[in-house]
Specification:
Blueprint lengths: L4 E6 L4 E8 L4 E8 L1 H4 L7 H23 L6 E9 L3 H18 L3 E5 H13 L6 E6 L4 E8 L2 E7 L5 H11 L6 H9 L24 H12 L13 H29 L4 E5 L6 H6 L1 H5 L3 E4 L2 H4 L8 H7 L20
Parallel strand pairs: 1-4, 4-5, 6-9, 9-10
Antiparallel strand pairs: 1-2, 2-3, 6-7, 7-8
Bound molecules: 5'-O-[(R)-(carboxyoxy)(hydroxy)phosphoryl]adenosine (KG4) and zinc ion.
Length: about 350
């Protein structure tokens, strides 16, 4: 008998995604429709535009996912959907579709936390148990540290008090005249720059708290690139070399902060495994710097790039919830902010 199948939907931010996954975590199909081109001119995601694009994209994406997996709706045993956190209008599009499908097909509905799904992508990629672990999710909307006791028990132990790491990448890229999304653009140009050209601030680096702050570094980059407000001295010309040096120094500072906080959390919670997810975990320099932790004996798991950025395949975590009997009622609602999940 073939393994039962689950359909997962994701629409929490600016990617509309659907995936079909079997109970052995094989991803039969994973389709992602990006809206980058719609938001590019604004330098960030515009919620209203995102919701409308989800409405347009969802059914074609769903059809494509079923077709690529070579299955029909009637083959599905459960519907999973990311219900938190995210943009409220965007989340609602996915949830409404998921509820409708669950009701019509008379199969269980499973509410998935998008951030926890990012961490579960490490379990999928590893093909073996990775929990208990410390988890770090660094995306455009979140910079969160978790103590992951198991695949379904996550405790939030630290987060950003202002900008998310990815947001800092995006804002710094805009300041430097680079395209959106900023992370890949900064990584590309940083490859030609000097990471020690500027000593940007590393907030909370020596602090005991497991939180992050990226507004100070963003301001420092602004002053370096555009000059101090009120200064009579014009800033040095922002030529290609200076842009590359600023990008490389910024990227190095962010990598320093992220690695340091992971190390602190691993020590405090006495964990030997580290799971990383979210768009910023795709950053090449950050990935290199994680070798420091590997040398210290930490089992470092990074989701592959296609599972780091937003997708529905990481909704495979729903199989863990399915097995634990954690189903959602049809009146379940979206939760835009990050709170502990009520199931
Ligand atoms: O997880 P994600 O795809 O979407 C959510 O925010 O949920 O993350 C997107 C973020 C953006 O801020 C983008 O600039 C950043 O991840 N990003 C990167 C890289 N690729 C994407 N940041 C640094 N280096 C990268 N290579
Ligand atoms: Zn995400």
């Amino acid at each position: 008998m073939p393994a039962p199948l689950l359909l997962a939907l994701e629409s929490s931010c600016d990617e509309t995604a659907a995936a079909v996954i079997d109970a052995d975590l094989n991803v039969l199909s994973s389709v992602v429709a990006s809206q980058d081109d719609l938001h590019q001119q604004f330098g960030g995601v515009v919620p209203e535009i995102a919701s409308r694009a989800h409405v347009r994209n969802l059914l074609p994406v769903l059809d494509a996912a079923l077709e690529r997996a070579n299955v029909s709706l009637l083959d599905l045993s459960a519907i999973a959907v990311m219900t938190q956190p995210g943009l409220v209008g965007s989340l609602l599009v996915g949830l409404t579709a998921a509820k409708t499908l669950a009701m019509v097909l008379d199969v269980p509905l499973i509410a998935v936390n998008h951030i926890e799904a990012h961490l579960y992508a490490c379990r999928m990629a590893a093909g073996r148990e990775v929990f208990p672990a410390i988890g770090l999710v660094v995306s455009g909307g979140h910079t969160n540290l978790y103590d992951c006791q198991s695949a379904i028990e996550f405790e939030l132990i630290g987060s950003t008090i202002d900008d998310a790491a990815g947001e800092a990448f995006d804002k710094v890229a805009t300041l430097l005249g680079l395209e959106y999304p900023g992370g890949p653009a900064i990584q590309r140009i940083a490859a030609t720059g000097n990471p020690r050209a500027f000593d940007f601030p590393r907030s909370f680096l020596k602090d005991d708290r497991l939180d992050f702050s990226f507004s100070g570094i963003k301001t420092a980059v602004r002053y370096t690139a555009l000059g101090q407000p009120g200064s009579k001295q014009p800033p040095p010309q922002l030529d290609a070399r200076r842009v590359a040096d600023i990008a490389a120094s910024f990227q190095e500072a962010v990598a320093d902060i992220l690695v340091a906080k992971c190390r602190q959390a691993l020590q405090r919670y006495d964990r030997r495994s580290l799971c990383l997810g979210g768009g910023v975990a795709a950053n090449g320099r950050f990935r290199e710097r994680l070798d420091d932790l590997r040398r210290e004996g930490i089992d470092v798991h990074i989701a592959p790039v296609n599972l780091c950025t937003d997708n529905a395949a990481m909704g495979a975590i729903a199989w863990e919830l399915y097995r634990a009997g954690r189903f959602a009622d049809l009146d379940v609602d979206v939760v835009p902010g990050l709170v502990r999940m009520q199931r």
